[in-house]
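Below is one such record:
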Amino acid sequence: MPKPIVFVPGFPASELRDANGDTVFPPSPADLLVSTRKRAFLARMRKIPGDLVPGPPIRSVLGIAKQAQSLYDLLGHRGYQITGDGDGPDFRAVGWDWRLGVDEPHTIAAVADAVRSFAPRKVIFLIHSTGALVFRAFLAAHPELEASIDHVLAFGGAWCGTLEALFAVHRGHSESILGIKLLTEDEGADLIGHTQAAYDLFPPDAARTDLGEMQLVHGADGKPASPNVDLSWIKPDRLVYAKPLADSANERLGKRDREFGSLPMTNVVGWGGPTWPAALLVKNDVVFPAEDKDFGDGTVPWASASWIQGPNVRTLFIPIGAFVADPIPDLHAHMWESLAVTQILKEVLENAPRTPLVAAAADSDEAIDIDSEFVTIRLTAQSTDGKPLPDCVALAKVGGTPIPVPFNGSTRKILRLRRAGFHHNASNDVFRFTIDFHWTGGSHLNFGVSFRAV
């Protein structure tokens, strides 16, 4: 019998439905292509909570772009039966209204009910992204249910915030399909800018929280800042709705504790996807530098995802990029699909013995761009408890003499290869080589890496 799982998705990854059970979010293309319907949709979304209630996690968009369905497929191969709304004999999915706060009482009650539904069996919490903040709010509200939790498996947890939320609120993302723009940047910013959970995702108050390496936001004076404390960046016409949301987020979540407690957790952190590395708050604006792949998983900075700590917290870094058997990068939304995660799922869900985690992936863009001067290889090597492997050295066998990459007490390393001089050896346009990992007491040999070459 599979271990029971309670799944808490991220933001904005839950459906919103009306009183008839019809899905309002995500909207259909027709809802956004017709101007009158678009205005009605946006107005309805801004009326919070209005007549909308949370539905299940979004399985897919238009039946094409998999969301939670990609996770459900993986769990299905491991014996889990999951219905259309995300329930099953050993599985409960808790959709939540992401327009409200991460600690909204109805959401927390739904999480608690999901745990109780499996009693006396202990549950595994599978949490993704903003779901980490929902989970912490649940623990604070229901400490009596901590004994009902067997393990926490987190993917890309936004434990200490993310700049992606700040970008979405301030500048906004546009949405299009087949080249037809459905939402403009301003419409996207207006939609997300009215949601409390977006402000809950801003990095917290540096004066009240031990940010560690999370010094992502600075004010005009150059000092660490929180967008929920320094409100100078908010555009004047947005202040009427943005200030109350920022004030609420700061009051509730401005002070955060890095200590997770004694619960056992496997905390999966990705790096290798374009992620905002910093933000500068100036008058009525936010300055973002270029996205950087070495800062996170494409949405959440690794410094935030790895910020949480505790005596039983095992933090595992996985490189995001092109693997030999899986060249499509598994960014933030689909981290569980990474080949590097297969071992983790077996350990947590199937009680497989823990073994050291080693992995290497080529940068997904450089791996296929024949004109790029370099190919970046991201490597990770960690012991069974997530700590660095002792005296670990990776030997990249790319020529007559292997290239050593010493980890020097770290869990992550980067190898950059100049593309010139490499010629295809695995197919008509692919160069393949292997990496041997050696450490005190063990080794992992012939880890394959590949990229395009002439």
